[in-house]
Amino acid sequence: MRSRSIAPLAAAVLLASVALAGCSGDDGVGEVPVTPTRTASDGVSRTSGATASPAPRSADPPALDVEVVAKGFEHGWDVGFLPDGRALVTERPGRISIVSGLREGATRTTVTADLDDVFVSGEGGLMGMVVHPDFATSRLFTTCQTHQEDGQPKDVRLVTWKLSADGTSAEKVRDLLTGLPISTGRHSGCRPTIAPAAVNDSGEDELFVGTGDVAQGDLPQNRTSLGGKVLRLDLDTGFPLTDNPFISSQNERERYVYSYGHRNIQGVAVQPGTGAIYTAEHGPSNNDEVNLIRAGGNYGWDPSQKGMVDGYDESVPMTDLELYPDAVPAVWQSGERTQAICGAAFLEGEQWGALDGALVITALKGSKLLVLTLAEDGSVEEVAVPEETDGPFGRLRAARLGPDGALYVTTTNGDDDQLLRITPRA
């Protein structure tokens, strides 16, 4: 992998980038300044002043091969792998595709499903997806989608589907969880990820869902709203797990909340071995964040400033330690320019060499992969950008590690989008 570490930027360049930055993390392209981390005595990673990231862990990390598995998608949002070697891909305009295989030359076929109730607007539509661990017998998968009734947006919800035996159609089984807030489509989230029983204490497959604050200033800090949160629930029943941090709340929705004070989470990844949950979150015009999630933690985003301002004030810090001194700082921030970071996945396996265990983040605006090397305490030691994925494929959204150990990434340019297979070069 030919990669570049993120270089320090002079103060003048930083000031210029602030002036050029837009108000949305989805506009423009910028370099990636890094806010490195230090670890406090309580074990929580703290952010320090913006400087360069350390050099890559290895002087000779593997080069990467990028293979186009299939084409013809429209804003491919997520990928789920089937036991027979095929894959499902959700597409934001309200389409589910099945891919015939996981190597170059695979074909894309539309799965027949009733998706007329998907509210497609702005960042909303058919979004994240998980294939159930028992798919071989149940044929179930769950999607996250914006929902409409009588042509009007109703909510964001998790919907469980059953794929037909031949893979040509899917029928809705149930609404797993409803009532996530919705707007015109802005900041809809919504990434579900399974923490398998092997890496958690409950002995069950746990579903974590990162949600967006739908650009409503009072929602991130309101624990009775499901927006701007990490939610934790039972994949089969849709009920909150009995050891959730606010399970004793009189409010039914608050029982689902695992962490709060988030802006717009679009990536959730479970660290192999530890079960630690990391999220990738859009910043406004600066400071996209990667967060290590703590049960019950407040991550400090509050565009209402405790109700002191009306509307949605995006000039506030992503982690406001003045208003919320106990807020959990990010383990990494993008600095003065956003990359609109999105999907998140851990690389795993000896074939990845020096990248084994690294956290990979996709970038929409930045059109690149970011490879984060983590320390044992969960802080970020290094950030590198593989040249093979730095720009040539445009906006990158989903990131999922496949059953073959390869990394699968979707493009989301809107015109003949692709499913990519990324592997270390032999």
Folded structure, characterized:
This protein has two helices and 27 strands. The protein is mainly beta. A hairpin with a 5-residue loop joins strand 26 (407-411) and strand 27. The longest helix has 10 residues, at 11-20. The N and C termini lie close together (11 Å).
Please sum up the structure shown.
This protein has 426 residues and is mainly β. It has helices spanning 11-20, 135-138, and strands at 3-5, 37-39, 45-47, 64-73, 76-81, 87-91, 95-99, 108-111, 126-131, 140-149, 152-163, 170-180, 191-195, 206-210, 229-234, 257-260, 265-270, 277-281, 289-292, 332-333, 341-346, 359-363, 368-374, 380-386, 396-401, 407-411, 417-424. 3% of the residues lie in helices and 37% in strands.
Rough outline: globular
List the uncertain runs: 5-59
Structure classification? mainly beta
Oligomeric assembly: single chain
What separation lies between the terminal Cα atoms? 11 Å
User: How many E-type strands?
Assistant: 27
Name the beta content range. 35-45%
The overall pLDDT, averaged over residues, is 87
| Topology as a string of helices (H) and strands (E) | EHEEEEEEEEHEEEEEEEEEEEEEEEEEE
CATH architecture: 6 Propeller
CATH structural fold name: Neuraminidase
Enumerate the strands of the largest sheet in spatial order, edge to edge or round the barrel.
1-24-23-22-21
Characterize the biggest β-sheet.
Answer: 5 strands, antiparallel
Whole-number count of domains:
1
